Amino acid sequence: MTQKTYKHVNYNWDDAIAGQLDPVERLRYRSNILGDDQRITNTGGGNTSSKIIMTDPLTGEEVDVLWVKGSGGDLRTSTRANFASLYMDKLLSLQSIYDAAEVKGVKTEIEDQMVGMYPHTTFNLNPRASSIDTPLHGFIPYRHVDHMHPISAIAIAASKDQQQLTQEVYGQEVGWVPWQRPGFDLGLVMGQVATENPQLKGLIMGQHGLINWANDDKECYELTLTLIEKAAEYIAAHDKGQATFGGPKYQSLSAADRESLLITLLPQLRGMVSQQNRFIGTIHITGSVLQFVNSHDAPRLAELGTSCPDHFLRTKIKPLYVDWNPQTEDLAALLTKLETGLAHYRQDYAAYYEACKHPDSPPMRDPNPTVILIPGVGLIAWGKNKSESRVTAEFYSLAIEVMRASEAISAYQGLPRQEAFDIEYWLLEEAKLKRMPPEKELARNVVIVVGAGSGIGKATAHRVAQEGAHVVCVDLNEAAAQATAAELTNQYGLGIGVAGTGISACGPALGLAVDITDRASVKAMLNQTVLAYGGIDNIIVTAGIFVPPTKDGKISDDMWDMTFAVNVKGLHIVADEGRKIWEAQRLPGTLVLTTSVNAAVAKKGSLAYDTSKAAANHLIRELAMELAPLVRVNGLAPATVVEGSSLFPRDRVISSLVKYEIAFEESEDTEALRTKLANFYAQRTLTKSPITLADQAEAAYLLTSSKLSKTTGQIITVDGGLPEAFLR
Ligand SMILES: [Zn+2]
Questions:
Q1: d(CA 148, CA 212)
Q2: Measured over all CA atoms, what is the biggest interatomic distance in the chain, rounded to whole angstroms?
Q3: Against a cut of 0.85, is the pTM above it?
Q4: Which of 262, 288, 377, 548 is the most buried (most CB within 10 A)?
């Protein structure tokens, strides 16, 4: 058989792979290769199914089972566990319960109640919850069904004359159903259309997407591609080229100008949209995004909002477009326009809520936009975390492609406002939100940990990440910083969503180099952080230096300077540059600086170090005054953490063991020797147990969190209890 060739989608079916798989795995395989192409479906969007004859574990008899992508997850990354399995006969029998209801139809109480019935039809105790799209697959009388959100099909579905276009593009093989909120009723409607029109291979779902079917899985896959290709070819033949979106009204800024504008703009903008909830940003700048934001039609089209319900849920009712001229107006003008634009947007949102709400609607949600469009610059998306803001950026950029295509073949129309509202405030959606675990202590926060390459800094990076923080791991040693960031990304996942330009395409953690004694280096690190996430919330500095005296116990002027440059001046530079961002954001933040119990305890052999730490203690108090009330500044004073510490290399550990006459073998590894020394030190403390990195990280986290929200200008010692280090 000759393989079909496609220009507008990727053909990825491989018989050699599919041939090895059982029917459920073939469905997983088909789903993965469909989800892999953004032109076929968006992240998290669409679903697939196969009806498979299986042996019933109860009766041993053969039964027909619907395997369908369940709630949550994503086609591209789905595994077998992402699919729900339901007895076909039981699923179909639910129709009698539905039909018996006095009031039925789209958006009726019984329709939502049917979702609660799906678990009763579960085959083989499969724990995956069924999605609301399950009946779309169950009632279509074919063995394999693909429901996708392809740009080209949504473009037809979101056009004014969508029914006529469907016929023009597909002739008799694809039908059309008007927009209807997905659910049990839509399943029945589509099942009936498919049954009554046996010539149909699929349907354009008004304002939504495409669904198609076949009795062979490979045939279903190829049909999906063929139908998308057909629409894409039709659209390509009508493409308006330079005249798309009414042609350009503005020109793009140069990459360098755009970057410097974003660095100044983003923290201020983040502060403006984060009045109710903090948001994490993603900048997304592609040729296509720029063509849209620079165009004559952008304000009109932006106002219409998105169409596909999947896109809409992230991008909200509409984006905020700011009519700013990048060629003639400056940043101050842009900020003023953003301020006014946001005020209008929130009013509009409240009016939309008031006009569309039902007596039982959940309370109004955050009225700020999640997508902001700026001519000459691009698209900025906001979400509760990096993953969500990346998905939002992806969805609006897909919506731009939908509008481009729809405006080429007809006129684009968004989802009607009431329909959009009934999805955004759907009680089922609200119930899903309520079932989600509460947000973690540092969720929605960007925390910079300076010194994250090793020791206390690394432990602290892990500790704050555990509380939901986005962590910028910073160290003089760039490779070490990146290694810590990679550990965090591996542990928490890169997140879904495929948008983000440059460093803004990052995940929940980032590794950067910095020399805190060099202001330009600190500035560059903060700029990268702003471009990655939109701003900062907390900074924790654990970096420090101990320069041992020479053999004759002397400290040279250079050693003195180096010690103070890192332990005092460096802390001030970080605070001073961080302050500019905090003040631009106008959101409360925290700064934690690491000093030492040596700040209070005079000791022989560490003159410069101890003096620098005493200065750092007072620096904390000065900064607490300077940065109030916006930023709390506190200090962490560790004592002799030997575990995994770069301040305790093997020879220093050995010389200490010798000094304190502690027995050891040369063959023991460094960590074992450190443990011996740590146990010895522990005996000198009031609490008598070794001081660990985790103990220090916990204190750094607590000072950063809201748990100590009334504490500033203080130093917490984590030293096991050393009476001579008591502050007084
Ligand atoms: Zn859908």
A1: 9
A2: 98
A3: yes
A4: 377
